[in-house]
């Protein structure tokens, strides 16, 4: 698999990469009393009040996998995907091979009071899967994908989407998820999971039947509707795990569509306001089988394109695309429509190569934009910046906003603010992204998508979790009372 030019990929497919941090987090605010249903199957042991120095030699002896310290083989291989992030220096990387290894890692972190984070695909936008002076639990060897006769798939937390899709397609099944091939299933699913089949089949997390997780007390649990149900609720959309280290999942799957029609429309520079306005009404009225994003590419003036996927044949797609173009009052500079198999379509959206340094943030469009042109002008004279509008609706909106931790069920779309950059220019790019995302919040909605986690987002607890925030904090306080998994933007914070 070639490396991914993230900007070109996002332009085509809407940016579905989710970070692979699976660690639990805490609230930093007053504790709340759990509701009676919030009862774990076991209680946490007393915390270690006095930290003891981490015994790395003992951990090496206990693990079936390897422990890599700085300068040793395997240490740098676990670094985040995003090359623009400032370099951090964890104390060690544990390449785990099973639940016992994860339990040993958590025990060391709890006793030594050091940060601990899990690493799957490494796509955390903020690099939270590689914490300074902490322990990285590298899950990449837990990558099995097994499709059962009943259509349920068991997936190891270290599996990448490219391998998940290949295994599912071989059995005639599909799971709605992202399209970036190197994204880990765990980070994506735990934050919700958006992709080109979202409107038809729902979020990835909506298909999560169970999650095998080791919590802060070192207990291996199976969170499902039948056991640790509140933890199961929280894992479906809270982002980054937030409650422990997940080692595997069970997902329900769908019959793979016999054919998917992919398409790309490009519009001339200067037409962005009209295209964005037409797109929002067109996609809101479209059948659930249609997913299409709208990307406004920065420049003077900005350009605009619409790309997507339809579960069905090209004849119906061409009719709908013609309707969109008429609504814009513009013409297209290019138009391509192609019918592919399920697996070929997933690979189609992932088939790019190039740079991997970026800064990004997001907002959620809670309703129709009254003046879409004002958003389009935000990238005037910002040639490295894109605004990526990814639709929700369809199957996403048929689930109540309190049914899972993902709160944005009634929203029109997410919008990602994205800038290509490298480490030398990261601060300047981050400042530009922050300015634009705040403008979008003032105009279109204050929600945000946790899988596009942004360290600069000031209102992130409410933005990510909405009305589910208090219940999530209750669950975090119950399963991780001592903040073993706390980090800067977690439900438990350091």
From TrEMBL:
The keyword Flavoprotein applies. Coiled coil: none annotated. Residues 86-256 form the FAD-binding PCMH-type domain. SUPFAM superfamilies: FAD-binding/transporter-associated domain-like. Its cofactor is FAD. Keywords: FAD, Flavoprotein, Oxidoreductase. Belongs to the oxygen-dependent FAD-linked oxidoreductase family. This is FAD-binding oxidoreductase.
């Amino acid at each position: 698999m070639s490396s991914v030019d993230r900007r070109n990929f996002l332009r085509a497919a809407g940016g579905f990469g989710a970070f692979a941090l699976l660690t639990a987090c805490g609230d930093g605010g007053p504790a709340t009393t759990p509701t009676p249903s919030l009862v774990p199957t076991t209680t946490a042991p007393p915390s270690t009040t006095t930290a003891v120095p981490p015994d790395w030699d003992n951990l090496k002896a206990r693990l079936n996998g390897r422990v890599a310290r700085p300068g040793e083989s395997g240490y740098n291989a676990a670094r985040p995907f995003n090359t623009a992030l400032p370099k951090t220096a964890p104390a060690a990387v544990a390449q785990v091979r099973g639940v016992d290894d994860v339990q040993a890692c958590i025990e060391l972190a709890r006793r030594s009071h050091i940060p601990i984070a899990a690493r799957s695909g490494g796509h955390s936008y903020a690099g939270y899967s590689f914490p300074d002076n902490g322990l990285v639990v590298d899950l990449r060897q837990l990558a099995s994908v097994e499709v059962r006769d009943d259509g349920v798939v068991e997936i190891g937390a270290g599996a990448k989407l490219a391998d998940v899709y290949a295994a599912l397609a071989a059995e005639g099944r599909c799971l709605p998820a992202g399209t970036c091939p190197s994204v880990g299933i765990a980070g994506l699913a735990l934050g919700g999971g958006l992709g080109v089949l979202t409107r038809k089949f729902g979020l990835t997390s909506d298909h999560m039947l169970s999650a095998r997780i080791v919590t802060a007390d070192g207990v291996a649990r199976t969170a499902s509707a039948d056991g640790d149900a509140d933890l199961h609720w929280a894992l479906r959309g809270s982002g980054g795990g937030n409650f422990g280290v997940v080692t595997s999942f069970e997902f329900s799957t769908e019959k793979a569509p016999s054919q998917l029609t992919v398409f790309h429309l490009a519009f001339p520079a200067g037409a962005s306001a009209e295209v964005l306005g037409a797109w929002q009404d067109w996609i809101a009225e479209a059948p659930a089988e249609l997913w299409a994003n709208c990307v406004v590419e920065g420049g003077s003036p900005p350009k605009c394109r619409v790309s997507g996927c339809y579960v069905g044949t090209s004849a119906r797609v061409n009719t709908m695309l013609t309707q969109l173009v008429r609504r814009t009052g513009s013409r297209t500079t290019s138009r391509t429509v192609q019918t592919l198999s399920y697996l070929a379509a997933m690979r189609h959206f992932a088939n790019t190569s190039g740079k991997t340094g970026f800064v990004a943030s997001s907002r959620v469009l809670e309703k129709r934009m009254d003046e879409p042109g004002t958003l389009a002008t935000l990238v005037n004279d910002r040639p490295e910046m894109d605004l990526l509008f990814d639709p929700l609706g369809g199957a996403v909106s048929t689930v109540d906003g309190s049914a899972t931790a993902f709160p944005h069920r009634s929203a029109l779309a997410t919008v990602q603010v994205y800038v290509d950059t490298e480490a030398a220019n990261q601060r300047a790019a981050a400042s530009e992204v922050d300015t634009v995302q705040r403008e979008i919040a003032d105009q279109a909605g204050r929600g945000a998508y946790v899988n596009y986690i942004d360290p600069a987002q000031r209102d992130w607890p409410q933005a990510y979790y909405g009305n589910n925030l208090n219940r999530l904090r209750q669950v975090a306080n119950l399963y991780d009372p001592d903040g073993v998994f706390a980090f800067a933007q977690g439900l438990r914070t350091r």
